[in-house]
Design brief:
mainly alpha; 3 helices
Length: about 80
């Protein structure tokens, strides 16, 4: 496990301390979890963008053409 020295503004440190206390975890556990979530989000975005770049738009149009016309479910209207 690696060590990291981090300087944070006092207000952010207060928020982290309070949220970690409410969650019943240490500040280190909270920050580790938050960083892991951010990494996961960035990697997911990268994966989705890479998949989208490989998409065959003609095939997408063919698939969407098979979707029947129906009114939206209540609450899903634009």
């Amino acid at each position: 496990m690696g060590a990291l020295s981090l300087r944070l503004p006092a207000s952010i440190h207060r928020h982290i301390r309070e949220i970690a206390r409410q969650e019943g975890v240490s500040i280190n556990q909270f920050i580790s979890s938050a960083v892991a979530e951010k990494i996961s989000a960035l990697l997911t975005e990268e994966y989705v963008n890479a998949r989208a770049a490989r998409a065959d738009l003609d095939k997408v149009a063919q698939i969407l053409a098979k979707v029947p016309e129906r009114p939206p479910v209540a609450g899903d209207e634009l």
